[in-house]
Amino acid sequence: MSWQETTVLTLLVAIVAGLVLTRIKPVLLFAGAAFVAFQTGLTSVEALTANFTAPSLLTLVLLILVSCALEKTHLTSWVARQASHGALPTVIAKLGISSALLSALVNNTAVVVSMIGAIKRNRRHSPSQLLIPLSYSAILGGTLTLIGTSTNLIVNSFVERAGLSSLGFFTPTIIGAAALVAGLLVLIPFSYRLPRHDGEQEESLPYVLEARLSADSPLCGRSVADNGLRALRRLYLAEIHRQDGVIAPVCPDTPLLAGDKLQFAGDVESVATLQEIPGLTLFGQHHIDGQNLIEVVVSHSASICGKTLKAARFRETFDAVVVAIRRGHEKLDGGLGNIPLHAGDTLVLVPGKTFRQDSQALRREFVLFNGLEASTRLSERKSVAVLAGFVAVIGAALLTPMPLLNGLAAYLVVLLVTGIISLHDLQRRFPVEVVVIVGAALTLAQLMLASGLSARFSDWFMATFAAGGAIGALVAVYLLTLLLTELITNNAAAALAFPLGYSLALGYGVDPMPFVMAVLFGASASFISPYGYQTNLLVYSVGNYQLRDYWRLGLPLSVVYSTVVLTLLPVVFPLTAVAP
């Protein structure tokens, strides 16, 4: 093995180990690998520049920026409201089809974010029976078109860098549509297996809030019942923390003492309720001054995972104060500032003056789904104009020679000039991490091919699984990509699997397109974990889910999805022999 192959293999092993075994951010791992490749002479400045300015990557960036305007329209929330009428199977079908079609054109995370609020407010069905199907439908919808998900465009970048013809807008549509139909046939009956978390169940799974009694509090020396803390609506006193220990459960005749920390359980509106009780100082009270509250979900790659609010220096780092924490079904013990944060935790924040200016850090640490950013909507007239403009851009790319990249660039300028979005919106949304990860991934994919490492892997693979032939190799590439997607990230899975799939196609002397599509569909097959895909993580805490809820619905869906994809791949994209 040459030193080039050894170096590239070492970089790949380091990336996979870092993604699976550590909390190091993917962007740092990929950027570090690209830096080492440049410093060791494996790649040049010109090659790096070309990878970071690939047309598919620029198209992805523009789509993300344009989505700033699309998220402000009324379309997704209107669709969610319309899908809330009817029996559960009808609602699942309508919600699945509408969210999938929207996700084919709009970033699926934006679709889920916009629909969550309307689904939570529907009075006919428990949100916990709708939110996981919503997430899965959005993932399935992302496979319908080339722009449905960022992974599709990233795979297209690999395709172009390998010297193949670019994927068409509707290249994945046939298989994606079949997978969507089959997926809905699973989601509709299996949604009955999801829990119903509403009514009394919702009230038993609330946020944790904390308040303190000052020395001059009028509540001191009186019992819990005498202070009226046993008759609060949708709010109850769960624990009292004193220097000599914790009192739980709290009895009505328990006296309150100066310095007591009272731990309550309640909903978001409980923040205002506690502020109105004389003598109670809410956790973070001195930073609250009439601001709107914001709910965020801790990302699986957040640097604050495993740290308490105090250890993470939360207020200093993000200019925001946490006033409540929620973790699905789990009961959280200890003071608010001493609870270790986990991925999927929902935090209620009071933002400071520079909170929004720190948005890049926020996007890395949190999934923002309710509050300042999610509540702003355009007027109906402007919503229609924005949607019509976007449809016109897509139509022009399909019906005229104008590339989608050019149309999106022009559309973005129009949105800026008309004031629909601002420069601050673009600064807030600019996907720095996506650009770095994709550019570095393209570099690594090229190095795997150029160094001969992917060919070496291909030869070993063909020798080990010779009995399966090209079909067996195709199935293996898909399953490998699916496994990597669940273990690491979609984009990283595509970056690692594409060179192998391409080399196997060359080794068998067949058209590479079936292997390319195996990577594309395998990288979107994240159904069995709340951490594998951002939309799954979004609904995790909102729906009060447990991990087994994803298994109940995700395992059968993953099996059916994979069966459909693997059955249709060699039919739609035949393994035809090509000239060497």
Specify the oligomeric state: single chain
Low-confidence stretches: 199-205, 372-376
Query: Quick one: biggest sheet?
Result: 5 strands, antiparallel
The total count of helices amounts to 25
- End-to-end distance: 25 Å
Spatial extent as radius of gyration? 26 Å
What structural class do you assign from the helix and strand content? alpha+beta
- Which band does the percent of strand residues land in? 5-15%
**What helical percentage do the residues reach?**
40-55%
- State the total count of DSSP E strands: 9
What is the general shape? globular
- Strands in their spatial order, largest beta sheet: 3-2-4-1-5
- Mean of residue pLDDT? 84
Subcellular location: Membrane
InterPro entries: Cit_transptr-like_dom, DASS-Related_Transporters, RCK_C, RCK_C_sf
Protein name: SLC13 family permease
Membrane topology: Multi-pass membrane protein
Task: Give me the secondary-structure topology.
Blueprint: H1 3-21, H2 26-39, H3 45-52, H4 55-70, H5 75-82, H6 88-103, H7 108-121, H8 131-141, H9 150-161, H10 173-190, H11 200-203, E1 207-213, E2 235-242, E3 245-247, E4 261-266, H12 270-275, E5 280-282, E6 294-298, H13 314-318, E7 320-326, E8 346-351, H14 359-365, E9 366-370, H15 372-375, H16 380-399, H17 404-417, H18 423-429, H19 432-451, H20 453-464, H21 469-487, H22 490-508, H23 513-522, H24 534-542, H25 547-572
Antiparallel strand pairs: 1-4, 1-5, 2-3, 2-4, 6-8, 6-9, 7-8
Helix pairs in contact: 1-2, 1-19, 2-19, 3-19, 4-9, 4-17, 5-6, 5-7, 6-7, 6-8, 6-10, 7-8, 7-24, 8-10, 8-24, 9-19, 9-22, 9-23, 10-25, 16-17, 19-22, 20-22, 21-22, 21-23, 22-23, 23-25
Keywords: Membrane, Repeat, Transmembrane, Transmembrane helix, Transport
Transmembrane segments: 95-118, 130-155, 167-188, 384-402, 408-427, 434-454, 460-480, 492-509, 515-533, 553-573
Organism: Salinivibrio siamensis
